[in-house]
Amino acid sequence: MALPTKSSILDLRLNTQCTRYPKESNDGWAKCKDSGRKLPKYKIVVLGASGVGKSALAIQMNHQCFVEEHDPTIQDSYWKEVALDNSGYILNVLDTAGQDIYRDLRDQCLAAGDGVLGVFALDDPSSLDQLQQIWSTWSLQQKQRLPLVLVGNKCDLVTAAGEAQTDAAILTHKWGAPFIKTSAKTRQGVEEAFALLVHEIQRAQESVVESSMEKTQQHKAMCSCGCSVA
Ligand SMILES: Nc1nc2c(ncn2[C@@H]2O[C@H](COP(=O)(O)OP(=O)(O)OP(=O)(O)O)[C@@H](O)[C@H]2O)c(=O)[nH]1
Q1: Are 181 and 123 in contact (CB under 8 A)?
Q2: Which of 82, 112, 125, 144 has minimal CB crowding within 10 Å?
Q3: For 182-229, what is each residue's pLDDT tens digit?
Q4: Hey, which of 70, 101, 117 would you mutate to test ligand 1's pocket, going by the most ligand atoms within 8 Å of its Cβ?
Q5: From the CB of residue 17, how many other CB atoms can be counted at a distance below 10 Å?
Q6: Ligand 1 atom 29, closest CA
Q7: 6: pLDDT confidence band, cut at 50, 70 and 90?
Q8: Beta partners for 73?
Q9: In the beta sheet, which residues pair with residue 96?
Q10: Are 123 and 175 in contact (CB under 8 A)?
Q11: Burial of 15 (0-12, 13-18, 19+ CB in 10 A)
Q12: Whose CA is nearest to atom 32 of ligand 1?
């Protein structure tokens, strides 16, 4: 099978309901192309050091194939409709550059994202340090933390839990983020990683709605002179 070549936006439609939506929707919902249904849309930023497999994961998720060569990314974007029960959602996967010279572009993606897949390679403990550096630097400048899933990729290359996995277990505790092992080569854990992040995003969005409803109720429970009413 011919492998996809990189472009700013891939639209290969290989065995998948992958659909490209070039125009942005501001309200977080996108129109399903064929049926006119409105589905929630989640922007997922794939973050991590160069060579950890961010593009391979994004392409495996969207096009169900494995890219062998390492062609450093500047920025790519993929769209996919994911079916879930009787409905579904639209995934917009933003594949960022691992190279630090593109840090500004990466920060723009993070600013636009709903959640982050923080990727490191299980066979390279230094890639976890680099991810930690990238994520901590960015998070420090933000008021609100984006939902994050920590992804240990290239699990096909390691036979036992190594240094990177032990360090990742400590980080998941510190960051309060779930951890999952994947292989972009064998597809192990790939769909699960994206689904887990969507779940984290939905939870975060629900808690924002709940806390704003609580605030509204508290406001209503105050009479005009400022005292509380039952
Ligand atoms: N064995 C194995 N190789 C992988 C896996 N994921 C990626 N690779 C290989 O690792 C190399 C780098 O993968 P990329 O997806 O290009 O890495 P990247 O993180 O996007 O790199 P940048 O674009 O430079 O940031 C490629 O040769 C991939 O084929 C995996 O799960 N297992």
Answers
A1: no
A2: 144
A3: 999 999 999 999 999 999 999 999 988 777 777 777 766 665 666 655
A4: 70
A5: 14
A6: 68
A7: very low
A8: none
A9: 75
A10: no
A11: exposed
A12: 154
Residue 49 identity (one-letter amino acid): A
Other beta carbons within 10 Å of 47: 28
Does the beta carbon of 56 sit less than 6 angstroms from any atom of ligand 1? yes
CA of 94 to the centre of ligand 1 (A): 16
Q: State the distance from the centre of ligand 1 to the C-alpha of 81, rounded, in angstroms.
A: 24
- Provide the token pair at 54: 């961010």
